[in-house]
Amino acid sequence: QVQLVESGGGLVQPGGSLRLSCVASGSRFSIYAMGWYRQAPGKQRELVAAISSGNSTNYADSVKGRFTISRDNAKNTVYLQMNSLKPEDTAVYYCNAFGWGTGDDYWGQGTQVTVSS
Questions:
Q1: Where are the beta strands (DSSP E) in the chain?
Q2: Is pLDDT at 103 greater than 90 in this prediction?
Q3: Cβ pair 93, 38 in contact under 8 A
Q4: What's the CA gap between 63 and 70, in Å, rounded?
Q5: Pairwise pLDDT comparison (105 vs 103), residue with the higher score
Q6: Model pLDDT for residues 61-99, shown as the tens digit of each residue
Q7: C-alpha pair distances (Å), 20 with each of 60, 95, 103
């Protein structure tokens, strides 16, 4: 069992920046693909950014050029650097760990990001 704990959310003005962190328990972090998802009120959860075990990344079109996902396997941590934030980025952001070979699929509890003046 892997536990994921997100942090770094909060209230920020439009145009501002936040960095989310997700720390994973256990010793298998490096084999997992890691993703950040978000869910706004009344909307479905959507993929924001993902990074493979080999450090390949992909992003939702809505965040390309503004968000950057990265991972530090030595710290069992995945990050989401969010710049030029917009009100439409407001959502609960969730961390996900997925094992392609194992079928493992773990979720964090979520962290709220609110972009408002």
A1: 4-7, 10-12, 18-24, 33-39, 46-51, 57-59, 67-72, 77-82, 91-98, 105-107, 111-115
A2: no
A3: yes
A4: 15
A5: 105
A6: 999 999 999 999 999 999 999 999 999 999 999 999 999
A7: 17, 9, 25
